[in-house]
User: What shape does this take?
Amino acid sequence: MTTLDMEQKFQERIDAEERIEPKDWMPEKYRQTLIRQISQHAHSEIVGMLPEGNWITRAPNLRRKTALLAKVQDEAGHGLYLYAAAETLGISRDEMISQLHSGEAKYSNIFNYPTLTWADMGTIGWLVDGAAIMNQVPLCRCSYGPYARAMVRVCKEESFHQRQGFELLLTLSKGTKEQREMLQESVNRFWWPSMMMFGPSDTDSPHTAQSMKWKIKRFTNDELRQKFVDVCAEQAKTLNITLPDPDLKWNEERGHYDFGAIDWDEFWRVVKGDGPCNRERLGARVRAHEEGAWVREAATAFAAKEAQRRQVAELREAV
Ligand code: FAQ
Assistant: This one.
């Protein structure tokens, strides 16, 4: 069979909604696309721990602290499931980590913005996890099995994250004038970067068309962004706040909210390494990796010792 025949057969499997598994034949570009997307996703989860981790010691009470601790810990777990899913495609974790640390690999634009107030903990849950869920629920039906299965668990946890964020903001919305102002100011800062999380508009997205054909993506960037706006515009009413977009208004004919233009120059600046916190975030990751070297060494030594112990026990049993 020629490569062209194999590609055609592969596409037929995709069209028939069959799951692709690690040992199945796949086009090299499909493999590379998945490695790119899954590793970027994993990096986003790990770097995404930093803006919120920054507030754990300053949570206002024990209930908020335990929820925030659990959420940040969950993000670490998501990163690990995703690195494991990417490893099934033939890339090692060390390679992925070194691509992140060298600045070669991307991670979500949103985590290069600072967390300046306690309200940001609620806004991240509401908007950032909200955008993440909107994007990730369809990924549970991604054509690549290990990624799709990882996303099922991730989405369950993300929905708890979104709810705890919204509940935090609802509490602020019913609080003092200062608390209501803190909530509005936080949403003003995070709204547009959250809208950018869905990626460039469809006309400027180099990967969407092929990823839709391969059923890695089930919706385009613009379709998901529109769903997000429609949900948030309604939820903002419950929070008694406005979204910082003078062009946001319900369009009866379309059955959707219209919204204003996104500043794509800002998006590309942040993605290419020049956002408010890019250097700080990468610096923190590299430092954590270096300081964790002794843990990796100890774990490797322990695993080697355990393997040796098991081998000796098996030999003893055999004689
Ligand atoms: N930030 O052609 P497309 C989370 C890049 S997880 C930075 O549209 P694609 C959980 C893109 O990589 C958030 N770069 O590409 C959490 C590509 O560059 P390349 C992460 C971006 O892959 C919550 C170029 O632009 N979620 O938040 C961004 O088809 C709270 C062209 O773009 C995922 O990763 C961006 N926002 O679509 C954690 C979900 N958007 O590689 C902590 C999985 C695009 O050619 C706290 N990923 N780029 O150099 C996806 O669904 C897709 O990869 C998209 C991009 C939709 C992100």
Remarks:
- Residues 36-37, 40-41, 44-45, 48, 75, 106, 108-109, 124, 128-129, 132, 135, 196-200, 205-208, 211, 221, 271 surround Phenylacetyl coenzyme A (CB under 6 Å).
- The mean pLDDT is 97.
- The longest strand covers residues 249-251.
